[in-house]
Specification:
With 304 residues, the protein is an alpha/beta fold. The protein contains ten helices and eight strands. Strands 6-5-4-7-8 form a five-stranded mixed beta sheet, sandwiched between helices. Helix 3 (76-88) crosses helix 9. Bound molecules: zinc ion. Residues 36, 38-39, 41, 54, 56-57, 59 line the site of zinc ion.
Protein backbone atom coordinates (compact mmCIF):
# COMPACT_ATOMS: atom_id res chain seq x y z
CA UNK A 1 0.00 0.00 0.00
CA UNK A 2 1.45 3.34 -1.02
CA UNK A 3 0.31 5.68 1.66
CA UNK A 4 2.71 8.60 1.48
CA UNK A 5 3.11 11.86 -0.40
CA UNK A 6 5.34 11.67 -3.46
CA UNK A 7 5.99 15.32 -4.14
CA UNK A 8 6.32 18.50 -2.13
CA UNK A 9 2.92 19.63 -3.41
CA UNK A 10 1.25 16.43 -2.30
CA UNK A 11 3.04 16.79 1.01
CA UNK A 12 1.89 20.38 1.58
CA UNK A 13 -1.68 19.56 0.63
CA UNK A 14 -1.85 16.51 2.82
CA UNK A 15 -0.26 17.88 5.99
CA UNK A 16 -1.73 21.35 6.12
CA UNK A 17 -3.06 21.06 9.69
CA UNK A 18 -2.21 19.49 13.06
CA UNK A 19 -5.29 17.33 12.66
CA UNK A 20 -4.15 15.84 9.34
CA UNK A 21 -0.66 15.09 10.76
CA UNK A 22 -2.19 13.42 13.80
CA UNK A 23 -4.51 11.29 11.68
CA UNK A 24 -1.58 10.15 9.58
CA UNK A 25 0.37 9.15 12.71
CA UNK A 26 -2.68 7.20 13.88
CA UNK A 27 -2.94 5.29 10.61
CA UNK A 28 0.71 4.30 10.83
CA UNK A 29 0.80 3.58 14.52
CA UNK A 30 -2.45 1.64 14.71
CA UNK A 31 -2.48 0.02 11.29
CA UNK A 32 -4.86 -2.67 12.47
CA UNK A 33 -6.96 -0.05 14.23
CA UNK A 34 -6.67 1.55 17.68
CA UNK A 35 -5.65 -0.72 20.55
CA UNK A 36 -5.86 0.57 24.12
CA UNK A 37 -2.35 0.36 25.62
CA UNK A 38 -3.97 -0.24 29.00
CA UNK A 39 -6.52 -3.01 28.39
CA UNK A 40 -6.12 -3.91 24.66
CA UNK A 41 -9.72 -2.98 23.96
CA UNK A 42 -10.26 -1.70 20.43
CA UNK A 43 -13.20 0.68 20.66
CA UNK A 44 -12.50 4.33 21.34
CA UNK A 45 -13.73 7.89 21.29
CA UNK A 46 -11.75 10.61 19.62
CA UNK A 47 -11.54 13.64 21.86
CA UNK A 48 -11.23 17.23 20.74
CA UNK A 49 -7.75 17.71 22.12
CA UNK A 50 -6.40 14.99 19.84
CA UNK A 51 -6.49 12.30 22.48
CA UNK A 52 -8.05 8.90 22.08
CA UNK A 53 -10.07 7.42 24.88
CA UNK A 54 -10.75 3.73 25.38
CA UNK A 55 -14.50 3.04 25.57
CA UNK A 56 -13.89 0.19 27.97
CA UNK A 57 -11.44 1.41 30.62
CA UNK A 58 -11.60 5.11 29.70
CA UNK A 59 -7.84 5.34 29.46
CA UNK A 60 -6.75 8.36 27.45
CA UNK A 61 -3.82 8.27 25.14
CA UNK A 62 -2.35 10.71 22.70
CA UNK A 63 -1.05 9.35 19.40
CA UNK A 64 2.34 10.83 20.17
CA UNK A 65 2.68 9.10 23.56
CA UNK A 66 5.46 6.55 23.41
CA UNK A 67 6.93 7.95 20.18
CA UNK A 68 9.81 10.33 19.52
CA UNK A 69 7.22 13.15 19.39
CA UNK A 70 6.18 12.61 22.99
CA UNK A 71 6.37 15.65 25.29
CA UNK A 72 7.60 18.07 22.69
CA UNK A 73 5.90 21.40 22.32
CA UNK A 74 6.84 21.50 18.67
CA UNK A 75 3.74 21.22 16.45
CA UNK A 76 3.49 18.04 14.39
CA UNK A 77 3.33 20.17 11.27
CA UNK A 78 6.89 21.32 11.98
CA UNK A 79 8.04 17.80 12.77
CA UNK A 80 6.61 16.59 9.48
CA UNK A 81 8.35 19.37 7.59
CA UNK A 82 11.61 18.56 9.34
CA UNK A 83 11.28 14.91 8.33
CA UNK A 84 10.54 15.84 4.75
CA UNK A 85 13.66 18.03 4.68
CA UNK A 86 15.78 15.26 6.19
CA UNK A 87 14.76 12.68 3.59
CA UNK A 88 14.25 14.85 0.53
CA UNK A 89 17.79 16.18 0.41
CA UNK A 90 20.36 13.71 -0.74
CA UNK A 91 22.84 14.52 1.99
CA UNK A 92 20.41 15.58 4.65
CA UNK A 93 20.35 18.91 6.40
CA UNK A 94 22.25 20.58 9.22
CA UNK A 95 20.59 22.01 12.31
CA UNK A 96 21.34 25.51 11.04
CA UNK A 97 19.85 24.76 7.63
CA UNK A 98 16.75 23.28 9.20
CA UNK A 99 16.38 26.26 11.50
CA UNK A 100 16.30 28.54 8.45
CA UNK A 101 13.83 26.39 6.52
CA UNK A 102 11.42 26.08 9.43
CA UNK A 103 11.83 29.70 10.46
CA UNK A 104 12.53 28.86 14.10
CA UNK A 105 14.21 31.36 16.35
CA UNK A 106 16.26 28.89 18.37
CA UNK A 107 19.08 26.79 16.95
CA UNK A 108 18.81 24.50 19.96
CA UNK A 109 15.29 23.45 18.94
CA UNK A 110 16.25 22.17 15.50
CA UNK A 111 19.41 20.57 16.86
CA UNK A 112 17.30 18.54 19.30
CA UNK A 113 14.74 17.69 16.63
CA UNK A 114 17.40 16.32 14.34
CA UNK A 115 18.91 14.21 17.10
CA UNK A 116 15.51 12.80 17.98
CA UNK A 117 14.91 11.94 14.34
CA UNK A 118 18.27 10.19 14.18
CA UNK A 119 17.23 7.88 16.99
CA UNK A 120 14.36 6.81 14.71
CA UNK A 121 16.75 5.95 11.91
CA UNK A 122 17.84 2.73 13.56
CA UNK A 123 15.15 0.16 13.09
CA UNK A 124 14.58 -1.81 16.29
CA UNK A 125 15.64 -5.40 15.71
CA UNK A 126 16.97 -4.54 12.28
CA UNK A 127 18.36 -7.23 10.04
CA UNK A 128 22.01 -7.99 10.29
CA UNK A 129 24.37 -7.99 7.33
CA UNK A 130 24.94 -11.34 5.63
CA UNK A 131 26.84 -13.11 2.88
CA UNK A 132 30.34 -11.76 2.37
CA UNK A 133 31.19 -8.83 4.63
CA UNK A 134 34.35 -6.71 4.85
CA UNK A 135 35.20 -5.52 8.35
CA UNK A 136 37.77 -2.93 9.38
CA UNK A 137 38.18 -0.12 11.88
CA UNK A 138 38.97 3.54 11.52
CA UNK A 139 39.44 6.58 13.73
CA UNK A 140 37.00 9.43 13.39
CA UNK A 141 38.15 12.87 14.40
CA UNK A 142 41.87 12.42 13.99
CA UNK A 143 44.09 13.52 11.15
CA UNK A 144 46.46 10.55 11.22
CA UNK A 145 46.02 6.80 11.47
CA UNK A 146 46.86 5.46 14.91
CA UNK A 147 48.29 2.32 16.47
CA UNK A 148 45.90 -0.52 17.04
CA UNK A 149 44.97 -1.75 20.48
CA UNK A 150 45.57 1.64 21.99
CA UNK A 151 43.30 4.63 22.31
CA UNK A 152 44.22 7.87 20.61
CA UNK A 153 43.49 11.20 22.24
CA UNK A 154 40.51 13.02 20.77
CA UNK A 155 39.73 10.22 18.36
CA UNK A 156 36.94 7.69 18.34
CA UNK A 157 37.32 4.21 16.95
CA UNK A 158 34.57 2.97 14.66
CA UNK A 159 34.09 -0.51 13.26
CA UNK A 160 33.00 -0.55 9.62
CA UNK A 161 31.15 -3.55 8.16
CA UNK A 162 30.24 -3.59 4.46
CA UNK A 163 28.43 -6.31 2.51
CA UNK A 164 30.20 -7.25 -0.69
CA UNK A 165 27.81 -7.60 -3.65
CA UNK A 166 29.73 -8.34 -6.86
CA UNK A 167 32.67 -6.24 -5.65
CA UNK A 168 30.36 -3.35 -4.83
CA UNK A 169 29.15 -2.14 -1.46
CA UNK A 170 25.81 -3.47 -0.29
CA UNK A 171 24.40 -2.53 3.09
CA UNK A 172 26.64 -1.21 5.86
CA UNK A 173 26.84 -0.98 9.62
CA UNK A 174 29.00 1.45 11.61
CA UNK A 175 29.66 0.75 15.25
CA UNK A 176 31.54 2.83 17.79
CA UNK A 177 33.97 0.64 19.75
CA UNK A 178 36.17 1.21 22.77
CA UNK A 179 39.33 -0.24 21.24
CA UNK A 180 40.41 -2.75 18.61
CA UNK A 181 40.65 -5.72 20.96
CA UNK A 182 38.77 -8.95 20.30
CA UNK A 183 36.66 -8.19 23.39
CA UNK A 184 35.38 -5.02 21.73
CA UNK A 185 35.25 -6.27 18.15
CA UNK A 186 33.41 -9.57 18.66
CA UNK A 187 30.23 -8.09 20.27
CA UNK A 188 30.10 -5.36 17.62
CA UNK A 189 30.43 -7.96 14.86
CA UNK A 190 27.78 -10.22 16.40
CA UNK A 191 25.37 -7.31 16.56
CA UNK A 192 26.05 -6.33 12.96
CA UNK A 193 26.55 -9.56 11.01
CA UNK A 194 24.63 -12.83 10.85
CA UNK A 195 26.49 -15.96 11.90
CA UNK A 196 27.73 -18.20 9.05
CA UNK A 197 28.56 -15.12 6.98
CA UNK A 198 32.05 -14.89 5.51
CA UNK A 199 33.93 -12.07 7.22
CA UNK A 200 36.90 -10.55 5.36
CA UNK A 201 39.48 -8.78 7.49
CA UNK A 202 43.18 -8.13 7.66
CA UNK A 203 45.43 -10.22 9.89
CA UNK A 204 44.88 -8.19 13.09
CA UNK A 205 44.82 -10.39 16.19
CA UNK A 206 41.53 -8.82 17.34
CA UNK A 207 39.77 -10.83 14.61
CA UNK A 208 41.39 -14.15 15.39
CA UNK A 209 38.38 -15.47 17.33
CA UNK A 210 35.92 -14.98 14.44
CA UNK A 211 35.93 -18.62 13.36
CA UNK A 212 35.22 -19.76 16.93
CA UNK A 213 32.07 -17.62 17.21
CA UNK A 214 30.26 -18.88 14.13
CA UNK A 215 31.74 -17.01 11.18
CA UNK A 216 33.78 -18.09 8.18
CA UNK A 217 36.88 -15.94 8.55
CA UNK A 218 39.07 -15.00 5.59
CA UNK A 219 42.15 -12.82 5.92
CA UNK A 220 42.61 -10.81 2.75
CA UNK A 221 45.33 -8.42 3.78
CA UNK A 222 48.24 -8.27 6.17
CA UNK A 223 47.91 -6.21 9.32
CA UNK A 224 48.51 -2.48 9.24
CA UNK A 225 47.80 0.39 11.57
CA UNK A 226 44.23 1.56 12.00
CA UNK A 227 42.94 3.65 9.14
CA UNK A 228 45.90 2.95 6.89
CA UNK A 229 45.08 0.97 3.76
CA UNK A 230 41.62 0.04 4.86
CA UNK A 231 39.97 -2.78 2.99
CA UNK A 232 38.71 -1.15 -0.24
CA UNK A 233 34.95 -1.04 0.38
CA UNK A 234 35.37 -0.10 4.03
CA UNK A 235 37.70 2.66 2.88
CA UNK A 236 35.12 4.00 0.46
CA UNK A 237 32.37 4.03 3.08
CA UNK A 238 34.56 5.80 5.61
CA UNK A 239 35.69 8.48 3.21
CA UNK A 240 32.06 9.13 2.24
CA UNK A 241 31.13 9.35 5.91
CA UNK A 242 33.90 11.84 6.65
CA UNK A 243 33.04 13.92 3.62
CA UNK A 244 29.37 13.93 4.66
CA UNK A 245 30.27 15.09 8.19
CA UNK A 246 32.32 17.91 6.76
CA UNK A 247 29.96 18.88 3.97
CA UNK A 248 26.58 18.69 5.65
CA UNK A 249 27.55 19.14 9.28
CA UNK A 250 30.67 21.28 9.01
CA UNK A 251 33.07 19.18 10.98
CA UNK A 252 33.32 16.59 13.64
CA UNK A 253 30.71 15.96 16.29
CA UNK A 254 31.84 15.22 19.84
CA UNK A 255 32.57 11.58 20.60
CA UNK A 256 29.44 11.31 22.76
CA UNK A 257 27.20 12.42 19.89
CA UNK A 258 28.97 10.51 17.16
CA UNK A 259 26.47 7.60 17.38
CA UNK A 260 23.67 9.83 16.14
CA UNK A 261 25.62 10.76 13.05
CA UNK A 262 26.66 7.16 12.43
CA UNK A 263 22.97 6.18 12.58
CA UNK A 264 21.89 8.85 10.14
CA UNK A 265 24.68 8.01 7.73
CA UNK A 266 23.84 4.28 7.80
CA UNK A 267 20.16 5.10 7.22
CA UNK A 268 21.06 7.20 4.19
CA UNK A 269 23.70 4.89 2.78
CA UNK A 270 21.53 1.78 2.99
CA UNK A 271 18.75 3.58 1.15
CA UNK A 272 20.90 5.51 -1.30
CA UNK A 273 19.43 3.84 -4.37
CA UNK A 274 15.85 4.50 -3.31
CA UNK A 275 14.20 6.70 -5.91
CA UNK A 276 11.27 7.59 -3.72
CA UNK A 277 11.82 10.27 -1.09
CA UNK A 278 8.19 9.82 -0.09
CA UNK A 279 8.86 6.20 0.81
CA UNK A 280 11.82 7.26 2.97
CA UNK A 281 9.56 9.75 4.70
CA UNK A 282 7.08 6.96 5.35
CA UNK A 283 9.82 4.65 6.73
CA UNK A 284 11.12 7.38 9.00
CA UNK A 285 7.65 8.07 10.44
CA UNK A 286 7.04 4.35 10.84
CA UNK A 287 10.20 4.03 12.89
CA UNK A 288 9.51 7.25 14.78
CA UNK A 289 6.24 5.92 16.17
CA UNK A 290 7.66 2.51 16.93
CA UNK A 291 10.62 3.32 19.12
CA UNK A 292 10.84 4.32 22.74
CA UNK A 293 10.67 8.03 23.43
CA UNK A 294 13.84 9.65 24.67
CA UNK A 295 14.22 12.60 26.92
CA UNK A 296 15.96 15.76 25.83
CA UNK A 297 18.53 15.44 28.59
CA UNK A 298 19.52 12.02 27.22
CA UNK A 299 20.18 13.59 23.84
CA UNK A 300 22.29 16.34 25.31
CA UNK A 301 24.24 13.86 27.38
CA UNK A 302 24.95 11.74 24.33
CA UNK A 303 25.12 7.98 24.41
CA UNK A 304 28.36 7.32 26.23
ZN1 LIG B 1 -8.69 0.42 27.74
Amino acid sequence: MENYPKTILEFEKRFSSEQSCREYLCQIRWQEGFICPHCNHMEYWERENGQYQCKYCRYRVSVTAGTIFQDTRIPLQLWFRAMWQVVSQKHGISALGLQRVLGLSRYETTWTMLHRLRTAMVRPGRDRLMGIVQVDETYIGGPRPGKRGRGAAGKTLVMVAVEVNNKRAGRIRLHKIKDASGDSLMPAIKESIQPKSEVLTDGWVGYSLLSTVGYKHTIIRETTDVGKNLLPLANRVISLFKRWLLGTHQGKPSASHLDYYLDEFVFRFNRRTSKSRGLLFYRLIQQAVNIDPIKNQDIHGGRG
